[in-house]
What does this fold into?
Amino acid sequence: MYHKELLKGNTETLLLFLLTEKPMYGYQIVKEIENRSQGYFQFKEGTLYPALHRLAKAGWVDGIWGEASTGAPRRYYSITAKGEGVLKERLQEWERFSSAVNSIMLAEAQ
It folds into this structure.
């Protein structure tokens, strides 16, 4: 199991990244994260929706109500241009961060 603080610091970036592909509703996001991480990450509503609300409040995502095939309304989230800019910065920072961590952790192996 992962350390929850690691996920907490990267939840918004993961959400922004997923939403670059297509608009998604909450349960769809949860399943996509679970599938792509091969079950490693399992988001709960208490993690997902507060993060989506923070992203919406910051103007990084939009939420639009739409009809599902079952007829029940669902809120579909999509990334905004501002969110795409933030994601680009965060991905660059992730590259620098992971490279620095690997430099330290893998230095002995070389």
About this structure: The helical segments are 4-8, 11-19, 26-36, 45-57, 81-105. The chain has one domain: 4-105. The CA atoms of residues 28 and 76 lie 9 Å apart.
